[in-house]
Design a protein that fits this description.
Strand 7 and strand 8 form a beta hairpin. The chain has strands at residues 13-14, 19-20, 29-31, 34-39, 49-55, 68-75, 78-82, 85-89, 94-97, 103-106, 109-116. The chain starts with 12 loop residues before the first strand and ends in an 11-residue tail after the last strand. The chain has no helices and eleven strands. By secondary structure, it is mainly β. The protein has a single domain, classed as Jelly Rolls, CATH 2.60.120.
């Protein structure tokens, strides 16, 4: 569990059979896409994580070998690149990105990203 997380912490609360987090209170960390607030990134959870991500205009194309990601666009308009194909992207578009698919968003966005299994920085690959 996050060292800052107590029983009433907005970052992570661990119940008997649940975790909960207040994503907008999770500290942002730099990532190849911009900055991410990674919910449920705690020891003992390798099932899934949920991220609130602010995508910058210079997001890098990347892929994962093990992880599937589900993007839900909350804000912004532009394109998503999926294995070189550009698809228009706007709020409420949701995309499931399977392992091996090279991807990035082109434009400034705010998204929710569900990573299954839980995000592992060692599973982030660049050409």
């Amino acid at each position: 569990m996050n060292p800052e997380a107590g029983p009433n912490s907005p970052v992570v609360h661990r119940g008997a059979r649940h975790l909960r987090t207040q994503l907008d209170a999770v500290p942002a960390v730099p990532c190849p896409c911009g900055s991410a607030r990674r919910g449920f990134a705690v020891p003992g959870n390798d099932f899934a994580t949920v991220h609130l991500v602010d995508i910058s205009i210079d997001a890098r194309t990347h892929y994962h070998l093990k992880m599937t990601e589900i993007y839900l666009i909350l804000e912004g308009e532009g394109f998503i690149e999926l294995d070189g194909e550009r698809v228009p992207a706007r709020p409420m578009l949701s995309v499931m990105i399977q392992p091996g698919c090279r991807h990035r968003l082109v434009g400034c966005f705010r998204i929710v990203n569900v990573a299954i299994p839980a995000f592992d920085p060692a599973d982030e690959w660049f050409d």
